[in-house]
Design goal:
Helices cover 18% and strands 35% of the residues. By secondary structure, it is α/β, with parallel strands linked by helices.
């Protein structure tokens, strides 16, 4: 049976409140209903969801610190990358331009999870 759709990605966080500020205020993701009783937050992105789950043990694994896009990452399409870059700069989130020449940047969330933001 073939896979027909990607439903969600789970992201671990050591600080749920800090991660929520990044995903809801910086990226502007909308929260989704979450019928579970352990600490976490779900976000809806079209038909896809991001599931933040709080953990007491977090392992950071930046494999390639020189080129952020060559690490594990989630990729989001955005309509105004320049505005998002201004928000990242204003909130002191460093980002790296895509080394491929595409109109995209890579940023780390507060827990070091890599996020790609590409202009569409």
């Amino acid at each position: 049976m073939p896979v027909i759709k990607c439903l969600h990605a789970a992201i671990l966080t050591a600080n749920l409140e800090q991660a929520d500020q990044f995903y809801s205020q910086i990226l502007g993701l909308e929260t989704a209903e979450r019928p579970l009783n352990f600490p976490g937050i779900w976000y809806q992105v079209g038909e896809f969801q991001i599931h933040l789950m709080q953990t007491s043990t977090l392992v950071r694994d930046l494999v390639n610190p020189e080129k952020w896009g060559r690490n594990r990452h989630l990729a989001f399409a955005v309509t105004d990358l320049e505005q998002l870059k201004q928000q990242l700069t204003a909130r002191h989130y460093p980002f790296q331009l895509s080394s491929s020449g595409r109109v995209a940047v890579f940023v780390q969330d507060p827990d070091g999870n890599m996020i790609e933001l590409s202009q569409v």
